[in-house]
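User: My collaborator sent over this chain with a note saying "see what the structure looks like." That's all I know about it. Can you take a look?
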Amino acid sequence: MFKRKEEVYSIKEFMARKNQPEELTEKELKAFRETGILIPLAIAPLFKVKSALAAEAVPVNAAAVTSAMYDKMLHAFDPLITLVQALAYPIAMVVVLGGALFIMIGNREKGFSMMSGAGLGYVLVQMTPLVLNILVEAMKVI
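Assistant: Without extra context I'll predict from the sequence alone. Here is the result:
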């Protein structure tokens, strides 16, 4: 609809440019009038706009807000914790089977360390919600 003339400047030329148009041309003014771009600006003072900051003050109990915040924080990570707990068992089984293969090959120390590490890791992953609850309760005290 509107074609603009494209001009290419170097940074030095652009910064030194003095002949920038300060007013709109008659063609641009006509386009503004035809498209109605200025209408909302012209009628805006006629409407009373209520600012978000000027809203009525509502008393809020700080204890209720912090309690709600802790509940949201407690349940915010539930999907992630459930996913990690669901993946812990298959991963632990693969590591235990790998440890068993090391034992069969003859590297008993490596096999038993892998198996014990898998078992300990599985137990710790399953205890994650307990640790999270302890952290949340500790934050309530502070």
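A starting point for your reply to your collaborator: The first helix runs from residue 11 to 16.
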